[in-house]
Amino acid sequence: MCNRGLWPLMHFMTPNCHFSTQQWNRYERVNRNFAEIAAKEAQPGDVLWVQDFHLALTPRLVCVSAGPTCRFGIFWQRTLPPEQLYAYFAVA
Asked: d(Cα 17, Cα 52) in Å, to the nearest integer?
């Protein structure tokens, strides 16, 4: 999921993106597992750090469990996707 789908997406190599439902489901499950553990371990006032796009879903999933007051720092070793890609995902 990360190497064949997200990495090319982050580098605006969309023709090289390959996604599958099976890979997405596994990616979601891994993020959910990390989020559940982080939500259990986090203490009020903690800042949770999420490193890299491998756990990109984790902050939202933790906030669903822990509430909207959770705080995050996010560090991605890869560049963020070019802003042109966001137009494809914009919600009206």
From this structure: 18
Q: Following CA atoms 23, 31, 76, 59 in sequence, which dihedral angle do they give, to the nearest 10 degrees?
A: 140
Compute the distance between CA of residue 30 and CA of residue 85 in angstroms, rounded to an integer.
25
- Say how far apart CA 63 and CA 38 lie, in whole Å: 10
Query: Does the predicted model carry a pTM greater than 0.85?
Result: no
Predicted confidence (pLDDT) per residue in 11-33, tens digit: 878 899 999 999 999 999 999 99
Domain extent listing, the chain? 2-89
pLDDT value for 92: 44
Contact 19, 43 (CB under 8 A): no
Determine the longest span between alpha carbons in the chain, in angstroms: 43
Distance CA 51, CA 79 (A): 13
Rounded CA separation 53/39 (Å): 19
